[in-house]
Design brief:
With 241 residues, this protein is an alpha/beta fold. 36% of the residues lie in helices and 27% in strands. It has helices at residues 5-44, 64-71, 84-92, 159-172, 175-178, 210-220; strands at residues 53-57, 97-105, 109-116, 121-125, 128-132, 138-142, 151-153, 181-188, 191-196, 201-205, 227-229, 237-239. Strands 7-8-9-10-11-12 form a six-stranded mixed sheet, with helices on one face. The termini are far apart.
């Protein structure tokens, strides 16, 4: 059997078309690899997308300079190489910082959003006061006691459990009573007492059943008394001096 010249040309064109199709695929893959490599180099190695600025927001007790020093982000670092988790951990080492969010802002910026600790009470330290947040962390020292913040005291002999009990009770005190609160005192973890304005006292007991005690105390405050005892919230008492 012999092939005509026309059939031979058709066969040759089909062979060439298949080869050209494979060649185009290979060329396309090569271009994709080259572009991916170039993009990776630009992102991870080149200074074209390196950090130019670091923006800090949310600070009042700590300064932006202190946050920047703790963050330790080099301006020469390619943005894609900035370890945001590591930066956040370093910023959280500042005791006044409660939480922090770090994000890349393309093409050349890092944003650090800080949430600072909020004072819930104060501890006396010589002539000064330590600001303490609701978790019991002392995060700042001030010379003058801030208005509206109760004193938190616990005997050194009782150690951390008594202090933690005082803080736990402080966070349970209902808002109307908190505005009248002068001091939270824990003689022991089971013996927490509140000192209010106008010489009034609340016997709270342990931090357990804090929500129930808060509700009972709110109701009891409608009575005129010098002592309100909610240590046993199922049988609260009041008395006058």
């Amino acid at each position: 059997m012999t092939l005509s010249a026309t059939s031979g040309r058709r066969f040759a064109r089909r062979i060439w078309a298949r080869r050209w199709s494979r060649l185009r695929v290979l060329v396309g893959l090569g271009l994709v690899m080259v572009l991916a490599g170039a993009a990776g180099w630009v992102m991870l190695e080149s200074t074209l997308l390196s950090v130019r600025s670091v923006e800090v927001t949310g600070t009042s007790r700590v300064t932006p300079a202190e946050v920047l020093a703790a963050a330790d982000v080099s301006p020469a670092t390619p943005l894609a190489r900035v370890d945001t988790d590591a930066v956040a951990r370093r910023v959280r080492s500042l005791v006044a910082v409660r939480t922090v969010s770090v994000s890349r802002q393309w093409p050349r910026s890092v944003q650090i959003i800080v949430q600072e600790r909020v004072p819930a009470g104060v501890q006396r330290r010589g002539p000064s006061y330590l600001l303490v947040d609701a978790t019991g962390v002392a995060f700042d020292t001030v010379r003058k006691r801030p208005k509206g913040l109760p004193l938190v005291t616990a005997p050194v002999a009782e150690g951390e459990p008594a202090f933690r009990a005082a803080i736990a009770v402080l966070t349970s005190v209902p808002a109307p009573v908190r505005r009248q609160l002068l001091e939270v005192r824990a003689a022991s973890p089971e013996q927490v007492m509140l000192r209010l304005t106008r010489g009034r006292t609340v016997v709270w007991g342990s931090p357990e059943r804090g929500d129930r005690k808060a509700a009972v105390l709110t109701a009891l405050m409608s009575r005129r008394a010098s002592v309100y005892d909610v240590s046993a919230p199922e049988a609260p008492t009041t008395r006058r001096s």
